[in-house]
Amino acid sequence: TEQGTLESSSNIEIKSKVKGGSTVLYVIETGTLVKEGDLLVELDTSTIEDNVTQKKISYETAMANKIISESNVAVAEKSITEYLEGTFKEEKATIEKEIFDAEQAVRTAQLKRDSAQRLAAKGMVGNLQLESESFAVESAKKELELKKARLSSLEKYTKEKMLQELTSTLDAAKARLAADESALELEKQRLEREKE
């Protein structure tokens, strides 16, 4: 008999494609005959499963952030419409009514003053009463000017300021949404890579 070693002519080299290290739980005995489907090596998959789970959590968090950002954009858009079609019109109408009431107060005060002047000419009302009625006219006129100034300020400055604030909020919400959409796409890619 001759001495020597025997080697198979159809050896197949098996390599792991798992990223990083992994603990081997089982390896088939060397020299064991195998057929297709037999378990050759079993690796500890807990680390891999933990990584996939963590990536799923990151992905779901990114998805939630995107949904919140979409909602914030919608709310910001509605806020602009609400201000222009609701709040601004309501404030303007309120001030216009106050102006109307102030104009009525001026007319009423003027009528009282005129009546007091006629009565003073007849000696039926004293100078103090006449001064009081004149003061009431001036006070009513000042109140009317104040209301008109409020309306002018609302139309020229407050409206513009509120629209600027609301538009800035909308722009910020849109920027946040774009960032959250990018973050979601990144987390989706990371999850897919981890699953490979």
What's a concise summary of this model?
The mean pLDDT is 90. It contains two helices and two strands.
Overview of this protein structure:
The chain is built from two helices and two strands, in the order ββαα. The protein has helices spanning about 45-120, 125-195, and strands at about 25, 40-45. It has a two-stranded antiparallel sheet with strand order 1-2. Helix 1 (about 45-120) runs antiparallel to helix 2 (about 125-195). The longest helix is centred in the middle third of the chain and has 76 residues, at about 45-120. The mean pLDDT is about 90.
**Neighbour order of strands in the largest sheet:** 1-2
Strand content: under 5%
Number of helices: 2
- What do the pLDDT scores average to? 90
What structural class results from the helix and strand content? Answer: mainly alpha
Radius of gyration: 42 Å
Overall number of strands: 2
Order of secondary-structure elements: EEHH
Describe the largest sheet.
2 strands, antiparallel
Shape: rod-shaped
